[in-house]
Write a structure and sequence with these properties.
It is built from 7 helices and 15 strands. The chain is of the alpha/beta class. The longest helix has 18 residues.
Length: 243
């Protein structure tokens, strides 16, 4: 899932940007959402502070004609998230310094008066290429494609009765009718198989109560009774590399 956020106080450019993105994304097979804002609202702040699963692209106007600018929003985004892509819109030459651009990891600027439609399309294409390089788990549920970043995954476990896997992230659960080895092939060394039917993301584990067989994740979720006797010692040794 790719979430695209537009914050632009000019209605005409807000609509225009939405139409450009909609036209571009409809040609892909990627599941996406588009949200538009005319200012830095409380709703936008909630999205930034509590993002959903997936990748985010923010297209922000530098001048919002109120107390908050696109740069203020970019600063807030980077407090919570350094993976999302940020594109700044400008009507003039009010560019931020190269140092600030690097610190905020701004992908690029788009000048409203020069090849706007073309440049937005090219930056969207570049953004999707960048996301493809970021490690993630890909699957489909009810003909909807999902692309979940590794860092958002807590654990994946099998439901042998329903013959499906349940993938638990920091935000939600996904029920996928695929065997566990479907996911194993996509994972890196940060994931560990604690039993025949469960894989955990070692980077998201805060602590483990080995005596009571309870894994506690940074977001407070708990996984109980998942570690098998066969895998217990190796898991305990591997966990020392992360905690």
């Amino acid at each position: 899932m790719v979430h695209i956020i537009i914050c632009e106080n000019n209605k005409n450019y807000r609509i225009r940007t939405y139409d450009i993105i909609e036209s571009f994304m409809m040609k892909t097979n990627i599941n996406y959402t588009i949200n538009t804002f005319e200012r830095y609202s409380d709703k936008l702040k909630r999205i930034i502070e509590n993002p959903d699963d997936g990748h985010y692209i923010y297209i922000l106007d530098i001048n919002l004609e109120n107390d908050d600018s696109g740069i203020d929003i970019a600063n807030d985004i980077r407090k919570y998230d350094y993976d999302s892509i940020i594109i700044l819109e400008t009507g003039y030459k009010e560019l931020i310094s190269e140092a600030q651009k690097l610190r905020l990891a701004i992908l690029d600027y788009v000048c409203k008066s020069i090849n706007y439609d073309k440049n937005i399309g090219e930056l969207l294409e570049l953004s999707l290429e960048i996301f493809e390089l970021k490690k993630s788990i890909k699957f489909q549920v009810e003909k909807v494609d999902y692309n979940i970043k590794y860092k958002d995954v807590l654990f994946i476990e099998t439901d042998s009765i329903e013959r499906k896997c349940i993938l638990t992230t920091v935000n939600k659960e996904y029920e996928i009718r695929k065997p566990l080895y479907f996911f194993e092939k996509q994972l890196n060394k940060d994931f560990f198989k604690v039993s025949r039917g469960c894989i955990v993301n070692m980077r998201n584990i805060k602590k483990c109560d080995h005596e009571n067989n309870i894994i506690i994740f940074y977001d407070g979720k708990r996984l109980c009774g998942a570690i098998s006797v066969r895998h217990a010692k190796k898991f305990k040794d591997r966990l020392k590399e992360y905690i």
